[in-house]
Amino acid sequence: MKVISIKQPWASLIINGYKEYEFRTWKTKYRGKILIHASQTIDKDIMPKFKAFNLEYPTGCIIGEVHITDCLKIDSLLAEKLKKENNIIYEDNYIDNYAFKLDKIIKYDNPIKVKGQLGIWNYNK
How far is CA 120 from CA 82, 96, 99, in A? Predict the structure, then answer.
């Protein structure tokens, strides 16, 4: 099964339906189901911004799954659209990066402890 590791709070924001896109500097041709791994790394500077969401932010585990349905190159028009749709999530300048469109979110009741990797990687249960 394909997996992508994402820092907290971003991984939990995806799995709880607040974040519809994952932003990367690289594109992917992969489409389909992918597991969301909450990496050991926490974006500590941004965490206070999401405290009011009252979410759990586990690390070092697979917390759910989504489907990647598209990979969009971010130009100024898409950047403006993303800012309007969800300003609290999209605040940096991601122009010339890529937005992975995420859909069909399933949050796992029991996270799976596993060490993550960079990029899209394989997990065998």
Answer: 24, 20, 14
Rounded to whole angstroms, how far apart are CA atoms 37 and 123?
A: 10
CATH 1.25.40.530 correct for 2-117: no
- What is d(CA 41, CA 51) in angstroms, rounded to the nearest whole number? 17
pLDDT of residue 113: 97
The pLDDT tens digits for 11-62 are 999 999 999 999 999 999 999 999 999 999 999 998 998 989 999 999 999 9
CA dist 80 and 87 (Å) reads 10
User: Phi, psi at residue 75, to the nearest 5°?
Assistant: -110, -175
